[in-house]
Amino acid sequence: MKVFRRLIWAGLVGVAALCQASDKPRPILLIPIDDRPAAGQFAQMIGSIADVDVLTPPLDLLGRFTKPGDPDKILEWLGKQDLRDYSAVIVSTDMIAYGGLISSRIPTTPYRKAIDRLRTLQLMRRSSPETKFFAFSSIMRLAPTALQSTKSWRDTLTKLVVARSRLEVEARPEELIEIERLKGRLPERVQTEYYAARSRDHLVQKELCRMTAAGVFDYLILGQDDAQPTGPHVSETVKLRQMVTNLKAKNSIYFCEGIDQHSNVLLSRAILHSQKFSPNIRLVFSDNGQRNMISDYETKQMESNLSNQIEASGAKIAAQGENYDYSLYVNTADPRPKVFARFLESLEQEIDQGLPVALADINLGKTGTGDLQLFEAIGESGRAKKLLGYAGWNTAGNTLGTVIPASNVYLCARQMDIDPMVRELNQQAFLLHRLVNDFQYHRFTRPEAYALRDKTEPGPREEVYGHAFDVMNTFVQQDVAHRVGATFQAQFLGKRFYAGTKLFQVDELDNLNVQLPWPRAYEVRIGFTLRANEVIRTAKGAN
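The chain above was modelled as a monomer; its predicted structure follows.
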């Protein structure tokens, strides 16, 4: 089997070597769910691997943190684009309907206004029927947004919502007592607004299903935002699934865990569809006994979640003994030490043999930080740079919906008539970005940033402003810049790679820019440019 994989990989290299850059692929237009890096920047970096420009509205139209985006101006901007110039349009319906993810959790936007905006989008789609339209919508999470204004009651509200859902399944006296106790600790306004937002979102999603069944969207993902196995989202999803069945729309409406990563997932689907390519993925788990566990902040068993992300991305899972295009190694939560050791050994061997391997670390825990032992293992012997893709951030859904699209798009790009230098360098740039952004930032920088905030000016971590934010932001800029530089030197600097028939060497990292996009340390925006030069060889092959 390993010999077969090696031949497949060598064949792909051979095809790439014959390709010469031709016309640049048509761009893709993205309306992200908000202005965070995970919502737009990641998709843009993945698109660049295939030399596909991913264009978004001006950043100021997308809002920032609690300030909502401006759906009407976004629609106005969208109306000025010639959609025939784009191969696909990817739309967050939460941005179009409400102004973004955070705004989708509050009832400020009336149902009628949300629908009117979606109808405007529908009319635009009719102007360019040949352009693919992909959409994603968030099934509202259990907990309210973590803000200073919600800190005193959000945990209580979450417990109340879960208790009410349990009561619907089994009416127990103790549950009724608990519900009354929790209700007494909450302002009536808080409960009313929470359920008003849920009800509106659910009605809008029913209309989205009808619109998709009618052909307004070629594909719709209903993504479950942070949740757990019990809550109102469960019954909402059951009703939506039944509706999809009744509409005979199962092939165009999909349910997935998570929400932030669906720009990436639909980007992969759009690019793969344009090239009529669907990679087969072999799955390798660090602990098969954990395949049916439910990850933190999710509602489905891990293997089901993984299957959903793969199918939505446009790829397929390879059956036992079937040919496949790459191996996806998945580090499950809390693997047993002995089986994890075998998983690491197999991972290292496949990487060292130059086989196509991607790595998803979902052993994240409540803090959303990756596995130190795994990260150190791929850091040895320059292995990290040899991966097709890597991710390990926040939740299992977020992680899988990042590494799978990046790996899919890279393999697809090897079959496209584009400059192989663009493909190879941008794939390495995204790898470097993930190694620092996913692992190092969340495991090291973020905890130190929070500790510094507590020391500088003790207060809530949900929102940080003024001098305390400036201190925290400066620390993050310096610490992340150091980590990017150190990882670049250790894993990428001076490393050689073939792009087509030419040999290149990574020589430089510049234009490094680091900042906190929102007034908190939960995520970071990292930008940089990798540069490489061709290695000129003499007739004897010496440099």
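Residues 438-534 form one domain.
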